[in-house]
Amino acid sequence: MSFLSPPAGNLDLGVNIDHVxxxxxxxxxxxxDPLQAALAAEAAGADAITLHLREDRxxxxxxxxxxxxxxxxxxxxxxxxLTPEILAIACTVRPQDVCLVPEKRQELTTEGGLEVAxxxxxxxxxxxxxxxxxxRVSLFLDPDPVQIHAARxxxxxxxxxxxxxxxxxxxxxxxxxxxxxxxxxxxxxxSLGLKVNAGHGLHYSNVQxxxxxxxxTELNIGHAIVAHALFVGWENAVHRVAGVMERTGGRFAxxxxxxxxxxxxxxxxxxxxxxxxxFLATRFAAKEAFSKAIGLGMHWPMTWRALQTLNEASGxxxxxxxxxxxxxxxxxxxxxxxxxxxxxxxxLAFVVAEQDKTKEIRRxxxxxxxxxxxxxxxxxSRAQLLALTEQIREVRSDLLITVDxxxxxxQRFKTDGFTHLPAMRGLGKLWEQDVLLATRxxxxxxxxxxxxxRASQIDFSFTPTLDLDYGHSKVIGDRAFHHDLxxxxxxxxxxxxxxxxxxxxxxxKHFPGHGFVEADSHYAMAVDTRTLAALFHDAQPYRxxxxxxxxxxxxxxxxxxxxxxxxxxxxxxxxxxxxxQLGFTGAILSDDLSxxxxxxxxxxxxxxxxxxxxxxxxVLVCNRPQEAERxxxxxxxxxxxxxxxxxxxxAARGEPISWHELEQHPQYLAAxxxxxxxxx
Length: 680
Prior knowledge:
Elements lengths: L11 E5 L1 H10 L6 H10 L4 E5 L9 H7 L6 E6 L3 H10 L3 E4 L19 H13 L3 E6 L3 H10 L3 E5 L1 H4 L4 H20 L3 E5 L7 H5 L4 E6 L1 H10 L1 H13 L4 H6 L2 H13 L1 H21 L13 E5 L5 E5 L1 H10 L1 E9 L4 E9 L2 H8 L5 E4 L7 H14 L4 E4 L20 H10 L1 H21 L4 E2 L23 H17 L6 E4 L14 E2 L4 H7 L1 H6 L5 E4 L2 E2 L12 H11 L5 E6 L11 H11 L3 E3 L4 H10 L6 H8 L10 H4 L3 H12 L3
Parallel strand pairs: 1-2, 1-8, 2-3, 3-4, 4-5, 5-6, 6-7, 7-8, 13-14, 14-15, 16-18, 17-19, 18-20, 20-21
Antiparallel strand pairs: 9-10, 11-12
Helix pairs in contact: 5-6, 10-11, 13-14, 18-19, 19-20, 19-28
GO biological process, one term: fatty acid biosynthetic process
Family: Belongs to the glycosyl hydrolase 3 family.
GO cellular component, one term: cytosol
């Protein structure tokens, strides 16, 4: 199709075939065949085929799902509930999309959206399981901001807004109020980087206002099409819905163009429809080319409207980023150049993206640089992450590549196949029910964590957390295993065993304990005024774990009963207590020196010098590249042979296996299955 032809199907249509199966099952015969209906819907222009495999199999059956998957040329969107049986079927069939919906046996049809906020961990687990099978996950939600924000936390990339109340509204005022509610919800979802779909109860008379909402990208309609098909035929019914959806004016332009682009589009379209369409085509092509050039695709922070192609006074096209995308490009030091070609029947855009890596390379080759720590901002996909770590290796093969990757809310990589690991408190709760099962689960968590990092060429993770769960520290909170020292020690030992099985060393933190203080040392100077006996009580896991700890990270907390300096800058804590009294022989790694808790010593150079003088083998400077530059330029330090040896022992052991091999690895798959079984 010529790009300059009027765009058709700007809004995707998913056709639900459930009620074709309902008619079939009503007589217990083989017709009407939902598979035939699906293929006919495809031929009529449907963009996706939706089907709901309910627990009671009231319409769609297992055989329908298995038979239809290889026949479709469009997407299969499988709706299912949060039940192990149905989720397992989904992971076996592997449709392109799975929409998680609520389900009640007594309901005639789905009533309301999924409760995500109230069962967040269960939904997260299901999303992780499905994403691990290569399935895109959608959550069927009421247009409720609480549920939409919760959906964002699950890492599901898509939400589908329930339009049932809008469709069943008794009067125009009620319908308009529901439409506005859906519009606000769609705008919120899009602003959070979610793809927004909608559906339920929509038909020819009420679909157009929903289709006109610029943040909605797909509608799912079933019952109305099946009912109308009884009179006009299946293909005609699908065509009619698609036609109504297309009568939404300049919806496509409003969806993809930034504010300045949209103004220019309307000005050109007012003079000539062809000129307007040519402008839209070139800008659309530029956004597609740009998204690929920077390696993100259409994934947050890259969105259609966040990237504009404008013209300088000379007429030369330039790319202008907005909002979060502009911030990301600045952080990544990416500059792009665009060339547009406005041909008669098609539009071309060429984008060259350049990244200034001079400063990074200079930091990496500096003799005082011993390692690098990665964050979520360094991750867009597994392939990109692996390319990044391989590039680092090419510059310095001896650098320790690390990440703060514990599980729960402190997990830097959560998508594109990475297992969503539980918070450590979940393992502690499991301990209270079954001790042996909890130790198995902890080992599985460590094993999965380590294998996935090793497959990404990462050497080391700052885990486990050995702090006590006193119940009032927000920064520690569910990162702690338990409130009992013995439980903490044994679960940490089990998790460390899992790490070791995959070749990763461990790091106990935050010595001597961060669990009691309420202040967050990232943002405040935290002080623990308890007695020496109370502090030594919290530090017992370090004594009991002994030689099984490869590294320890001290807390940026002042303990006046011992020293006026924070523990990470105190010779008393690091030399007299940790090394001499507790007999620790591993590496001591400072916490981030850009944290507020490190400011008691002075600027970042003074903090680094003080930490090393106190006994740290390596210091961390995170989040502030300019301060890392300053430390490298001004620090005067030569590591001892013993210190260098301790750091060297943190490197990963053995040859890592690739992601492809990992996906076939029986022990890895068994560990993941255990976490799914336990709903962790």
